[in-house]
Amino acid sequence: MAKGDKDARSLQREYGVAYQECLWLVREKGVEGAIEELDQRREIARLLATEPRFHVVIRECVLQKEFVENIDRLYGTNLARRGTGLQLAIDDASGRMQKDIRTFIRFVKEQVWDRLPEVRT
Length: 121
Prior knowledge:
Layout: H1 5-15, H2 19-50, H3 52-62, H4 65-75, H5 85-94, H6 96-111
């Protein structure tokens, strides 16, 4: 049995996430880190499904070119879609763009959404 296999299977059942994703999280972040990551994803999914204002905040952040460029610089993402057509196609095929979008949404939630005073009411 591979390292972390039992933990990954348990997380797969609890969170409904693909086994390979759970195994990667367990190996990369440990069990506690994987649980924290999956809890954050669950909270963001809840906000996306139930809170229209969250969509507005994300849209406004996406429209700020400097904001997106700074996220790219700080986190090594490529949300501004710089590169050749081949590089962008590789990013899409490898799942990098999805990962970059998750990084962006998490940043917006933690650094913008959670700090808005009217959100807490």
